[in-house]
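Hi R.,

Here's the input for the iron/sulfur cluster complex you asked about:
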Amino acid sequence: MSVTAKPLIIPIFIPHAGCPHQCVFCNQQAITGSTAVLPTPAHIRSVVHDFLSYKRDIRTGVELSFYGGNFLGLPAKTIQDLLDQASEFAGTGHIDGIRFSTRPDTVDGDRLNLLRPYPVSTLELGVQSLNDAVLRQAGRGHTAADAVNAATLLKENNYRVGLQMMTGLPGDKDALCLSTARQIIALKPDFVRIYPTLVIHGSRLADLYQQGLYTPQNLMDCVVQLKTLVLLFQENRIPVIRMGLQASDGLDDPSIVLAGPYHPALGHMVYSEILLDAAAKKLKDRQTPHQTVRITVHPRSLSRMQGLNKTNIEILKRRFHIQTLHLATDSSLDSDSVRVE
Ligand code: SF4
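And here is the predicted structure with iron/sulfur cluster in place:
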């Protein structure tokens, strides 16, 4: 995985808009802190201007995104109205494209025809699982075949495709999750997002949890599972652009996230574990004694190599009886490479 600039995404939340029902794990209004179902043109304008005024950096391209609902499940006229509003910013050069997330069972030829006049570049599909029994328990209301067909149709139409999967869903197991990841890889998405299941206030999962019918993953089990998934996606050159919900004040509130592996630095923890494993493997393979060791990583990976509260350093020193451990950086390295000397 090399370090590349990412597009700046301007999110416009449309909580539950276009959803045929509420999936078991979901409560977008609690997650996004927003109760407005559809944004007004004035709201879109103000979000775009806010983002562009303080977040212009080295990113490649700017995309306006509609998240938190089922975009293609909206009435055709609403889809066109929102795309008309978003397109204005493309016309003035403020954004380069439009993206949105949608359910697999809303992707068909008619809906894609609606998009053709607009600069829609990226679609994200909420796949969640590619196991029908898991999808049933999650109350998704679509099958794995729907997700495969939707992803295939989007690729055929040359869209950039992101697939979102979840871990820890009711009835899911490590092996089923791994199988979902392998099937996702076979669909050749441009990127994936991985969301561990959280117990969100106001969701049906919260009722199951409170009745003792659902046990969430603990944080460390989740990190270990994510590590396996990330390595698998890395091997197949598929970027994982996000793990876990975006940190926000609401998610730190225990009356909103009732249980589950929420951590504001979840992705950081996973990548720290990956670098810890990589450094440990190199140290194990070394023939020379370990009194003084220098570990070199890409500058952007330095804090990942250190781990939260520098725990990785302490672990390595203890495990390999290292007296002095120096950390150094080298920008010619890939962000997942570790050099040990
Ligand atoms: S998971 Fe997606 S489709 Fe299901 S309720 Fe939430 S936003 Fe709607």
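One thing worth noting: The chain has a mean pLDDT of 92.

Cheers,
M.
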